[in-house]
């Protein structure tokens, strides 16, 4: 049985994410045209738990590989970067603009021990794949602790 550190704010972060997604889906037209609200965007991810590793797939279409930064610290995986806006075309009359631009960042808590030196990330065809190899629980040895009284 694994011990998982309880984070009282995790539920609030999930609620905030859900509310932000609700507003993003329903007010996207306003956000694109006003410009000053379009400071960031979110991207979909799939996270899969296998016996050997945690696998993360993130959809980042239109993002240059050099503009993506992945970090892992204190059991927190962070994906951040920027999708740069395309140059405006002179004389072009856009009928609809829905694609989001700007910086993005998402973090995920990983509740299993990870071999940090073996984490790998690969970006191809707009999909970022991150592999977080798990520490082998069987290699952890049990330590007996003497209780003093």
Automatic annotation (TrEMBL):
Q: Where are the transmembrane segments?
A: none
- Read off the InterPro entries from this record: A-crystallin/Hsp20_dom, HSP20-like_chaperone, Small_HSP
Taxonomically, the superkingdom here is: Bacteria
Name all SHSP domain ranges.
36-148
Cross-referenced SUPFAM superfamilies, in alphabetical order?
A: HSP20-like chaperones
Kindly give the PANTHER family that the UniProt entry links to this protein: HEAT-SHOCK PROTEIN 20 FAMILY MEMBER
* Family of this protein: Belongs to the small heat shock protein (HSP20) family.
Put simply, this protein is called Molecular chaperone
Q: Which organism is it from?
A: Pelotomaculum thermopropionicum (strain DSM 13744 / JCM 10971 / SI)
Gene name for this UniProt entry? IbpA
